[in-house]
Amino acid sequence: MEQNISLPLSEIAEEITAIELELTDESLINPDRIKRIIVAENDIIVAQMNSIFIFDKDGKFVRSIGSKGQGPGEYNNIRNLALDERNKRLFVNSTRKIICYDLDGNFLRESFPFQQGNVHVYDMNYINNELLTLVDAIGRKDEKGLFNHSVVYRLNDDLQITDSCTIRNTYFEKPGMSIHPYEDYILDGNATVSLYYSDFYFDEQNPAEEVLRDTLYRFENNQLVPDFRLKFKNNGLDGGGKKIIQLFNTYCSSRYIFAVYGNSLNSNYYRFCYDTKTGKGYNMQDGYTDDINGIDKRISIRPFHTNPEMFYYWHTHIKPGDLEEPNPTLYIGKLKK
User: Fold this and answer.
1) Per-residue model confidence as pLDDT tens digits over 35-71
2) What pTM does this model have?
3) Which of these, 60, 108, 119, 322, could form a disulfide with 114 (CB 3.0-4.6 Å)?
4) Cβ contacts of residue 242 below 8 Å, gap of 6+?
5) Sheet with strand 34-39: strands edge to edge
6) 9-335 has which CATH code?
7) Where are the domains of the chain?
């Protein structure tokens, strides 16, 4: 495995398309606050912390969706998006609330399906006419002690829970949670739904407290099916006197395995790419190199929720003479097979 290099995108990408997102008074994007981008057949949907914008496929601004607030149809601190492209509906997760709009911006309904206790919705995706949500219930208690309960819920069109599948229970001495830098877990791979949700934690000073979760799963027929296992050496990354590795996010295309791992205590993150065709793996502390478009800054790629053979990233190009910072350019890539 090559250590701490930057993998050129030309090595893994078959093609990359650049789309400049139009800047208007109503469509100002802060690239540091982007939560998720959905690329549909005719629309590009960009969600940042407190706003949602729709652009056409050429990047022209079309409209905003919803507004910030605490009332019906309003959101505050957007976490996730999911799209029902067939029925042109957009689902928005704002803390515990899930809101449904049509793509014209009309508010349709909302629900508070996760009302008990302290919860965090990590991800959601609309697949096979159902809204799948990955949720952590934080600080539950039983005879063994305090634990976080991770579960996938199925929601119907009324945004009510119809079924669930427990992922795991994680026990702690004190209640807590970790916010992952990227939350792309529930991916629609057409034949199967992938649910790669795992952590690796190793404390060199306290080996007895090691928590190892390095097996990744497919989600089939409301059951978890082991898919593959990642192997990391137990040498960790320095984190304030502790040696820690956390595996934040993993997903697969037909050829590549991608992961984000590192140490959340000091925001020291690595990107990992493994090519199953050549058997080569790459570690990147600062991200990938876009040698196709000549971007100087290292970039991080994210998968399409509806097709993990595709990925996206964004970059802001500031030209000499610009009087204001433009919206970022969206890059859409197709992986080699």
Assistant:
1) 999 999 899 999 999 999 999 999 999 999 999 998 9
2) 0.88
3) 119
4) 203, 204, 205, 236, 265
5) 34-39, 43-48, 51-56, 61-64
6) 2.120.10.30
7) 9-335
